[in-house]
Design a protein that fits this description.
alpha+beta; single chain; 41% helix; 4-stranded antiparallel beta sheet; globular
């Protein structure tokens, strides 16, 4: 119960790191939040939805990780990395590499 109360206070996206253009980053954040809210608790389905939307909008080669308690270090194409949190603990990592 206490965790749910805390998460209600963090119902916005917090970008930790990005090298995307501002427009692309905002679009990616909004799509990620929509995917997480649509598939609440099912990170695999949310990742798949976000991946499909990114490939549709910006071409193929996108990778998406959504979850809790993971670290990251990836090689990515310039201008295609976004690492953010939503709902307090849910992390979203999106990058493109060909």
């Amino acid at each position: 119960m206490a965790d749910e109360d805390i998460r209600k206070n963090f119902n916005y996206a917090i970008t930790v790191k990005t090298d995307m253009t501002e427009e692309m980053a905002v679009d990616t954040q909004e799509t990620a939040v929509t995917a997480i809210e649509k598939h609440s608790g099912n990170y695999e389905a949310a990742s798949k939805l976000l991946h499909e939307e990114m490939c549709k909008k910006y071409g193929g080669g996108w990778h998406v990780v959504i979850g809790e308690g993971f670290g990251n270090q990836v090689t990515h194409d310039h201008g295609s990395l976004l690492f953010m949190f939503f709902g307090g603990l849910t992390a979203v990592l999106v990058w493109k590499c060909n």
